[in-house]
Write a structure and sequence with these properties.
The strands form nine sheets. The protein has an eight-stranded antiparallel beta sheet with strand order 14-13-10-11-12-15-22-20, sandwiched between helices. The chain has an eight-stranded antiparallel beta sheet with strand order 28-27-26-25-24-31-30-29. Strands 3-2-1-4-5 form a five-stranded parallel beta sheet. It folds into six domains: about 5-105, Rossmann fold; about 110-130 and about 205-335, ATP-grasp fold, B domain (D-amino Acid Aminotransferase, Chain A, domain 1, 2-Layer Sandwich), CATH 3.30.470.20; about 130-200, 2-Layer Sandwich (Dna Ligase, domain 1), CATH 3.30.1490.20; about 340-455, 2-Layer Sandwich (D-amino Acid Aminotransferase, Chain A, domain 1), CATH 3.30.470.20; about 460-540, no CATH class; about 565-649, OB fold (Dihydrolipoamide Acetyltransferase, E2P) (Beta Barrel). It has 19 helices and 39 strands. Helix content is about 25%, strand content about 30%. Bound molecules: adenosine-5'-diphosphate (ADP) (2 copies) and magnesium ion (MG). One adenosine-5'-diphosphate binds near residues 156, 162, 202, 206 and 234. One adenosine-5'-diphosphate binds next to strand 7, strand 9, strand 10, strand 13 and strand 14. InterPro entries: ATP-grasp, BC-like_N, Biotin_BS, Biotin_carboxylase_complex, Biotin_carboxylation_dom, Biotin_COase_C, Biotin_lipoyl, CPAse_ATP-bd. GO terms for molecular function: ATP binding; ligase activity; metal ion binding. Its cofactor is biotin.
Length: about 650
């Protein structure tokens, strides 16, 4: 076994690989970019080497820097994770030329599977069923459109170099073919530097079922299938193993085809053979076709681990170190059912836009496996995939595993960024999905109901107000509460575009009335915990100016700082001043910059709180008078705007 390996990746997969390696007594070297200097995967390693700037091209894609780091730290092997350099055969060649071991398949096997057209031709030869279509070299548009006519509509145009669902177009009618071809080719050229496409029959009610294989360079075994049909725009959202409705006959046929595919290219290590399945007539042994092979450890490998009890990373290390396959086909069995949900920082109502933010609070549920590359306090930066975690559950049956997933999602607590938790929960509550009726169109068909954002109830507003005022748990007695005069305090909160001022009237240590959003909510403290209109409290936390209630996907309320308003309203003039003595935490304005009323120009920390200082009007910054880190007096001028007349001139 290796004594030291380097992991050429980041995030959850780097942490995942490190966990197994260290458990095997193997020393782990991490590499990191500027943005990742304090990242979880660095902390998970024994040694870490800085390899460059935050953009992937400046760090995680720099094969030379990674190989140099391996040599400098005495690593004998490199694990590529997924993405980045994992399927780059030139990198594999370079690793081997440097006398190191690549933990994965040979460069030759990666090249053979790298282009979808060549892979399909090869698989056809090996007797693996492939999706009917045209995967020849003639790229003349007329020829391709003729091929589409022969195949019969609907057809799918696919970039031969494609990945991640890019460069793919579904065409329903012949008259749309040419436009779709042009846009697929354009996207493929930009994303992969290769505009070539193939044409495939579009399978009706498609299901994506893939087979995990593992080879030693000569022989291969399969570790059964995963169903990844829950997709949004050809991207996997929830995966499971085994596939619902799978028959022993079809499983055997698919397993054999996948092993044949792997052995045909002398596959070494973990790989996945992806098939498309016609779900319109049930699962039949003659109803699956090869789509492509992913020559790496896959994102969704944990569901296979859950049902087989195999640690795929351990197998990768052992086989790369020269051991033979750790198990024979007949040793492998399926135990129960497993689901994986991909938790992302993304703004679902805004079209699943990737989000960024600092995870003020992060807690994963009990009773589930959580593979993550971030911790509370870490930042989801714009440089990389915004995945927060993969949540994996296992159970004796599909129903049990799915209800464990529902519970696990309900137990995820994320504050500081929007997430797709609500969407994942809605999916896990979807009737068709629960019944095992999965196909790749499910999400798109029911998108409207799946993306509904829960609106806070008056009880939620009331609880948020109490938490914002620090009245969530502690006795208000110390805060000046007296029996004979009910204490009234107010706080302004914002949920989305909805802004409300909540008034909390305390009527004793265990009772209060909250007036908010045209409602009146009775708060009562029972056994130390507040209830709201009789509803039990939801777990809640205040982090800075954000109150998060962990109900559904998490309800985030901004606490509106009255000082923001004061600053905005008060300083009609040119100066942005410190409203109180404090520490300048950050200055966002630069001289010459155009700002709009309401823009955040600086942050002042005072009285243990952060206060945003906003521009009171549109204008141009004339001068920045204070730097981050400066201690300032009340009334100190921090930023000066140009006179309005000057700016107009
Ligand atoms: P999986 O089938 O494992 O879910 P994905 O398609 O989600 O695979 O991709 C897994 C990882 O590989 C992601 O990080 C994705 O960005 C990366 N990836 C997939 N295809 C390519 C490609 N052609 N080029 C670069 N990265 C890719
Ligand atoms: P990528 O390299 O982007 O992962 P794939 O060839 O694996 O591309 O296809 C991605 C997804 O597109 C599949 O999981 C499936 O949902 C859909 N798809 C691919 N081929 C077909 C087909 N012939 N018919 C229907 N859907 C397909
Ligand atoms: Mg694929």
């Amino acid at each position: 076994m290796f004594d030291t390996i380097l992991i050429a990746n980041r995030g959850e997969i780097a942490c995942r690989v490190a966990r197994t390696a260290r458990a095997m007594g193997v020393r782990v070297v991490a590499v990191y970019s500027d943005a990742d200097a304090a990242a979880a995967h660095v902390a998970a390693a024994d040694v870490a080497v800085h390899i460059g700037g935050s953009a992937p091209a400046d760090s995680y894609l720099r094969g030379d820097a990674i190989i140099a780091a391996a040599q400098a730290t005495g690593a004998q092997a490199i694990h590529p994770g997924y993405g980045f350099l994992s399927e780059n055969p030139d990198f594999v060649d370079a690793v081997e030329a440097a006398g190191l071991t690549f933990i994965g398949p040979s460069a030759d096997a990666i090249r053979k599977m790298g282009l979808k057209d060549a892979a399909k031709a090869l698989m056809e030869e090996a007797g693996v069923p492939v999706v009917p279509g045209y995967h020849g070299s003639n790229q003349d548009p007329e020829h391709l459109s003729g091929a589409a006519d022969t195949i019969g509509y609907p057809v799918l145009i696919k970039a031969v170099a494609g990945g991640g669902g890019k460069g793919m177009r579904l065409v329903e009618r012949p008259q749309d073919f040419m436009d779709a071809l042009e846009s697929a080719k354009g996207e493929a050229r930009t994303a992969f530097g290769n505009a070539d496409v193939l044409i495939e029959k579009y399978i009706q009610k498609p299901r994506h079922i893939e087979v995990q294989v593992f080879g030693d360079g000569t022989r291969a075994v399969h570790l059964f299938e995963r169903d990844c049909s829950l997709q949004r725009r050809h991207q996997k959202v929830i995966e499971e193993a085994p596939a619902p409705g799978m028959t022993a006959e079809m499983r055997a046929a698919m397993g054999q085809a996948a092993v044949r595919a792997a052995e045909a290219i002398g596959y070494n290590g973990a790989g996945t053979v992806e098939f498309i399945v016609d779900g319109s007539r049930g699962l039949r042994p003659d109803g699956f076709w090869f789509m492509e092979m992913n020559t790496r450890l896959q994102v969704e490998h944990p569901v296979t681990e859950a049902i087989t009890g195999v640690d795929l990373v351990e197998w990768q290390l052992r086989v790369a170190a020269g051991e033979s396959l750790p198990a024979q086909q007949e040793d492998l069995t399926i135990d129960g059912h497993s689901f994986e949900a991909r938790l992302y920082a993304e703004d679902v109502p805004k079209g699943f836009l990737p989000a960024t933010g600092t995870l003020a609070h992060l807690e994963f549920p009990q009773g589930a496996r959580s593979d993550s590359g971030v911790r509370a306090g870490d930042t989801i930066s714009p440089f990389y995939d915004p995945m927060i975690a993969k949540i994996i559950t296992h159970g004796p049956t599909r129903d049990v595993a799915l209800s464990r997933m529902r519970a696990a999602l309900a137990g995820c607590q994320v504050a500081g960024t929007v997430t797709n938790l609500g969407f994942l929960s809605a999916l896990c509550a979807h009737r068709g999905f629960a019944a095992g009726e999965v196909d790749t169109g499910l999400i798109a068909r029911d998108l409207d109901t799946l993306v509904q954002v829960p609106a806070p109830r008056p009880a939620d507003w009331a609880q948020a107000a109490m938490v914002a005022l620090g009245l969530g748990e502690d006795l208000p007695g110390d805060a000046g509460f007296s029996l004979w005069s009910p204490l009234v305090r107010s706080v302004a909160l914002r949920f989305g575009d909805d802004e409300q001022v909540a008034r909390v009237a305390l009527a004793g240590p265990d009772a209060a009335t909250v007036h908010v959003a045209d409602a009146q909510v009775a708060a009562r403290r029972v056994a130390g915990a507040w209830t709201f209109d009789g509803l039990p409290p939801v777990p809640a936390i205040r982090t800075g100016a954000l109150v998060t209630l962990f109900r559904d996907a998490g309800l985030g309320f901004d606490v509106i700082d009255p000082l923001d308003r004061a600053a905005a309203a008060g300083a009609g003039g040119n100066l942005i001043e410190a409203p109180m003595p404090g520490l300048v935490k950050a200055v966002f304005a630069k001289a010459g910059q155009h700002v709009s009323a309401g823009d955040r120009l600086a942050v002042l920390e005072a009285m243990k709180m952060e206060h945003s200082l906003l521009a009171a009007r549109d204008g141009v910054v004339a001068e920045v008078l204070a730097e981050a880190g400066a201690q300032v007096e009340a009334g100190a001028a921090l930023i000066r705007l140009e006179d309005e007349e000057d700016a107009a001139a």
